[in-house]
Design brief:
The complex is a heterodimer of chains A (about 325) and B (about 525).
Chain A lengths: L1 H26 L6 H4 L6 H10 L6 H13 L13 H36 L4 H15 L2 H15 L12 E3 L2 E3 L4 H34 L2 H8 L4 H39 L4 H11 L2 H29 L1 H10 L2
Antiparallel strand pairs in A: 1-2
Helix pairs in contact in A: 1-4, 1-12, 5-6, 5-8, 5-10, 5-12, 6-8, 7-8, 7-10, 8-10, 10-11, 10-12, 11-12, 12-13
Chain B lengths: L1 H19 L2 E6 L14 H7 L4 E2 L1 E3 L5 E3 L2 E8 L2 E6 L13 H11 L13 E8 L2 E6 L6 H5 L3 E2 L2 H6 L26 E7 L3 E6 L13 E6 L3 H9 L5 E3 L6 H5 L4 E16 L18 H10 L2 H7 L6 E2 L23 H10 L7 E7 L6 H14 L3 E7 L1 H9 L5 E6 L8 H8 L17 H12 L3 H18 L2 E14 L2 E2 L14 E2 L2
Parallel strand pairs in B: 1-12, 1-13, 16-17, 16-18
Antiparallel strand pairs in B: 2-9, 3-4, 5-6, 6-8, 7-8, 10-11, 11-12, 13-19, 14-18, 14-19, 15-19, 20-21
Helix pairs in contact in B: 8-10, 13-14, 14-15
The chains are: A mainly alpha (about 325), B alpha+beta (about 525).
Chain lengths: ~325, ~525
């Protein structure tokens, strides 16, 4: 287990270095950030001076080397857009994204799994059929369209929920939370629903398919023959066995949620890391973009490692194998 | 009893609305870069900090220069201008305003590391004469000094020193500046709180030296990046004023009770630059046909701007033959006349120049910089094709577009110019028409050089006599017009939207000055 973790840490360093390298190679195609930094009427000399000060006149590998050298000491530099430390910007935005993703992920499990079970147990009922149909819509509508529709219905027409922002947030140390105020909770509803919709339908369909599969297996038949209650069969035996693929997909999708949060945050002006990244892209703010991409790749590695560890908890067979061969 | 309760309830509601009536909720497409008035040349950031900090002279609601922190000025010599400062002004932190604040602020703005440096060219020193008098020392006659000064806001010396912020912020290194998130000015509003990219709150400065024309007590500024969401927030009543309001939503906003559009032609003139270098970037013929003025005229005749106005700009743009808007000094009616739309004429001019079958060239436009920029170029490409040209259209994000423009990797390209912050035709002469040389000609099309225009530009730069200066400027602009150095298109419309309770003048420079705004019930 320890060996596994150490290997994962080394791997993750390589992943981050590679992501940063690819990012720096792509920044070249993004255009010239100097144009956003100088006045419209700045002369060529002023432009060149700024370019030189920021090291933009250096070759890509020098810029990359500088970034890695500084990042290894924990220094991600200052944002070119608003002259604030990148680490401060990211830690300021992280709570917003984390709370949004957390709620969205929770919703997708809390709604997705029960609906999946329902549609699996009564596949031909009217409610299951209509849920299937709805989920098809949920899975095929682009998320930003859903978001704008939600705003139109719940903010413009009904006036129940805010169309943008986080509401009132309360600072607990460096963490700003919207969980503790009514307006903060109200502000969470639309964005988290928009963000979870795709995953919710995915989980529902996955649980349904897996569950129907499991219900056909022999051990379920034996369980029925033994006279166990339906409840015990469905939830103790069948459900547990459907959850392993669900956890894999959920883990992979959790990374996706953070990535998709970019769209949600843009639509709802949610002041999270995704919105920060989009602004950095449109400005050409290299320090912020590089740090964000590295951070997101780190989060992906952490999630995948956690999922791998969770398998062992859920599946006793992996646990035995795992200790023998150190995975 | 019930009636009594209801009456109390109504009274209570009325009280709360009355108390919040003068609070204005304002949304823009992005946040300010920071609160330091000298840390960015971004005009939106600067007008936002202008609510807190003030310059020596400022624009009034009609875009005329009027005294602000300076009460009068006098040109002692061409290189020495004396400013009398306003008495009895205090900063929001309680410190008195004086000559040393002006000295520190102006020198901070022109520091070699300051991004604002280019907005106050020629200033070499500030000499303190007495507590309320300063001399600005310049390296040459600077007729536009006051125009430049409208953009340079004054900070408190003691406050800057106390927070180790006398040197300007340099994003390329070092630490976060105190002035990025804190503010202490003399202006009509003071900073209450700031959450970057979420909410900036300003409250009225009760101790302001001027008589307020606004009735606001509080401004809540929220950046909302998504156009659809910004409009939705206005329609749902969460926001009182949005800027910009997308043109395609104008009909919907006008059709909704309680909100309205604010649309006027702005200062920003949109034009096409033309590569007049030795060869085309993306052509199919030897040499560069665009060097021939007849070919450029043919292009001019081929474009139907009225159609673009009616179909793409929803009737809101001002079609122009001039590179500057009417509100900018140097403009004349004569300058504004366009070559008529005439595809037959275009074809015959093209044939006369030796290209009866046309030729291919690159047509490069941004798609996220100006109002409907990508659509305009698409329409223009079709019009040019009808007259025998073969434009190869490329539309790209602004960062890439302007990089190519800088490197002359474009044949025909779109550019918008608002002459801000100087609001003067000299801006066009020096940056876009003079032959590239040092501070001149940053955006001058590749290969364009007219010695007479160069000569006039340098004369305009130092002419103190306003009438003579305007005459020289007009002459130079007319020469460039005859050369078809640029192909003017239109002045793009400003587009804001507000609740009907909000009164605000819409200045042509597209900057929101909330100290002229009133909110009623």
């Amino acid at each position: 287990m320890l060996g596994f973790l150490i290997r994962r840490i080394i791997q993750s360093i390589f992943v981050m270095l590679t992501v940063a390298l690819i990012a720096f190679m792509m920044f070249r195609f993004m255009g010239d950030p100097v144009n956003s930094l100088v006045a419209e009427n700045a002369t060529t000399e002023e432009r060149d001076a700024v370019r030189e000060r920021l090291g933009l006149d250096q070759p890509i590998w020098v810029q990359y080397g500088r970034f890695v050298a500084r990042a290894s000491t924990g220094d991600f530099g200052l944002s070119w857009r608003n002259a604030r430390p990148v680490s401060t910007l990211l830690s300021e935005r992280f709570p917003a994204t984390a709370e949004l993703v957390l709620v969205a992920a929770g919703l997708s499990l809390l709604i997705g799994i029960p609906l999946g079970i329902l549609t699996a147990l009564r596949p031909s009922s009217l409610s299951a059929q209509s849920l299937q149909l709805l989920s098809l819509i949920g899975i095929s509508l682009p998320t930003f369209v859903t978001g704008i529709l939600l705003i139109l219905i719940f903010s413009v027409w009904l006036g129940w929920l805010p169309s943008f922002g986080r509401g009132t947030v309360i600072d607990i140390g460096w963490w700003s939370t919207g969980f503790l105020t009514v307006s903060g909770l109200k502000a969470l509803i639309l964005p988290s629903f928009m963000l979870c919709l795709f995953q919710l339908t995915l989980i529902m369909r996955l649980v349904r398919a897996e569950m129907m599969e499991v219900l056909r297996t022999d051990y379920i038949k034996f369980a029925k023959a033994r006279g166990l209650t339906n409840r015990s069969i469905n939830f103790r035996h069948a459900l547990k066995n459907t959850l392993i693929p669900v956890i894999t997909i959920f883990g992979l999708q959790l990374g996706g949620l953070i990535a998709f949060a970019i769209v949600t945050e843009t639509v709802f002006q949610w002041p999270g890391m995704g919105a920060l990244f989009i602004q950095a892209v449109s400005f050409g703010d290299v320090p912020v973009m590089a740090a964000y991409l590295v951070l997101v790749s780190l989060i992906f590695v952490i999630i995948n490692t956690t999922v791998d560890l969770l398998y062992a908890v859920l599946d006793p067979r992996l646990r035995v194998d795992g200790t023998k061969s150190a995975h | 009893m019930l009636r009594y309760l209801m009456m109390t309830a109504t009274a209570a509601t009325m009280l709360t609305t009355a108390a919040s009536a003068e609070s204005l909720r304002y949304a823009t497409s992005r946040d300010v870069y920071g609160l330091d008035p000298h840390a960015s040349s971004d005009s939106f950031t600067n007008i936002f900090t202008h609510h807190i900090y003030e310059p020596l002279v400022r624009y009034d609601a009609d875009m005329k220069i009027e005294p602000a922190l300076a009460t009068s000025w006098e040109v002692l010599e061409p290189t020495r201008v004396r400013f009398k400062l306003r008495e009895g002004v205090t900063f929001q932190g309680g410190e008195a305003f004086g000559a040393d604040d002006v000295q520190v602020s102006l020198m901070r703005a022109v520091d070699p590391k300051s991004p604002l440096r280019g907005n106050l060219p020629g200033l070499t020193a500030v000499e303190i004469v007495d507590d309320l008098t300063v001399d600005l020392i310049l390296d040459g006659a600077t007729p536009l000094l006051n125009n430049y000064l409208t953009n340079i806001q004054i900070m408190d010396k003691g406050w800057l020193e106390a927070h180790n912020s006398v040197a300007p912020i340099d994003a390329s290194q070092g630490e976060e500046g105190y002035t990025t998130n804190n503010a202490n000015g003399t202006g009509p509003f003071a900073l209450e709180s700031r959450r970057p990219d979420a909410l900036n709150v300003l409250v009225v400065n009760e101790g302001w030296w001027d008589t307020p024309q606004h009735n606001l007590t509080r401004i809540e500024h929220t950046p909302i990046g998504s156009d659809a969401t910004r409009v939705a927030a206005l329609l749902s009543g969460e926001i009182d004023l949005i800027e910009p309001a997308p043109l395609q939503d104008a009909g919907r906003i006008e059709g909704t009770d309680g909100v309205h559009m604010l649309q006027n032609p702005g200062l920003r003139s949109i034009m096409m630059g033309i590569n007049m270098g030795e060869s085309l970037v993306d052509g199919n013929v030897e040499g560069n046909p665009l060097k021939d003025v007849r070919v450029r005229q043919a292009m001019y005749h081929a474009i139907n701007m009225d159609l673009i106005r009616d179909r793409i700009m929803r009737g809101k743009s001002r079609v122009t033959g001039s590179l500057i808007a009417p509100a900018v000094k140097g403009f004349s009616e004569e300058m504004d006349e366009r070559l008529p739309y005439d595809p037959e004429m275009a074809k015959s001019l093209l044939a006369e120049a030796g290209y009866p079958d046309g030729f291919a060239f690159n047509l490069n436009c941004p798609n996220d910089r100006y109002v409907n920029d990508g659509d305009i170029c698409q329409a223009m490409a079709a019009m040019l094709a009808q007259s025998g040209f073969e434009p190869r259209l490329v539309t790209e994000p602004r960062q890439i577009h302007f990089k190519k423009v800088d490197n002359h990797e474009v044949d025909v390209f779109m550019l918008g110019w608002a002459t801000l912050p100087m609001l003067d035709g000299f801006s066009v002469l020096s940056a876009m028409l003079a032959t590239k040389d040092g501070e001149y000609g940053t955006f001058t099309p590749n290969g364009y050089s007219n010695p007479k225009v160069d000569e006039l530009t340098r004369a305009v730069a130092v002419e103190i006599d306003e009438e003579k200066r305007l005459a020289l400027m007009e002459e130079a602009l007319m020469l460039a017009k005859a050369d078809v150095a640029w192909l003017p298109l239109h002045q793009q419309p400003l587009s804001w939207a507000a609740r009907d309770t909000v009164e605000i003048p819409q200045a042509p420079d597209d900057l929101v000055r909330l100290w002229y705004a009133t909110v009623t019930n």
